[in-house]
Amino acid sequence: MQGFRRLALAVMLAGAALPALAVNPDEVLEDPALEERARDISAGLRCLVCQNESIDESNASLARDLRLLVRERLLEGDSNEEVVDYVVDRYGEFVLLRPTTGGWNWLLWASGPLLFLIALTLAAIYLRARATGPADTGLSEDEQKRLDEILKS
């Protein structure tokens, strides 16, 4: 009985470690090679409802429609790139989990490191200005005389 419990626990832990896929059995293609291609493509497409899951992991009805669309395009003979281009043309670049770096997207990709460098530069300038602040030159001759007069009184 204890061996069964250990086996059940091992199966549960292994299942928890694997990503949950929402692909229904009626969506799976008969050709294993095409199904593998469909899974590869689906893993890179964002669910437009969940927004942070791939369509392969999402249970949303729109994600199901996108999975079926991917499989339909593959059955029509499209290459992986053609399928992704078709989906992007239809839904925009937001559907990609990993957006391209072309066009104006380079600005988004570069903005993080660029702002970090600007912050480092400004911090260095500020710290240098504080370290090399105005030197304490002491009192002028007139100020020293006035101080001496005050102290004598």
Task: Set down the secondary structure blueprint.
Elements: H1 2-17, H2 32-43, H3 61-75, H4 80-91, H5 105-131, H6 141-152
Helix pairs in contact: 2-3, 3-4
Protein name: Cytochrome c-type biogenesis protein
InterPro entries: C-type_cytochrome_biogenesis, CcmH/CycL/Ccl2/NrfF_N, CcmH/CycL/NrfF/Ccl2_sf
Signal peptide: 1-22
Structure description:
This protein is mainly α and 153 residues long. It has 2 domains: 2-95, Cytochrome C biogenesis protein (Helicase, Ruva Protein, domain 3, Orthogonal Bundle); 105-152. It is built from 6 helices and no strands. It has helices at residues 2-17, 32-43, 61-75, 80-91, 105-131, 141-152. Helix 2 (32-43) packs across helix 3. The chain is elongated and about 105 Å long. The relative contact order is 0.07. The chain crosses the membrane at residues 106-127. Keywords: Cytochrome c-type biogenesis, Heme, Iron, Membrane, Metal-binding, Signal, Transmembrane, Transmembrane helix. One of its GO terms (biological process) is cytochrome complex assembly. InterPro entries: C-type_cytochrome_biogenesis, CcmH/CycL/Ccl2/NrfF_N, CcmH/CycL/NrfF/Ccl2_sf. Residues 12-151 form the CcmH/CycL/Ccl2/NrfF N-terminal domain.
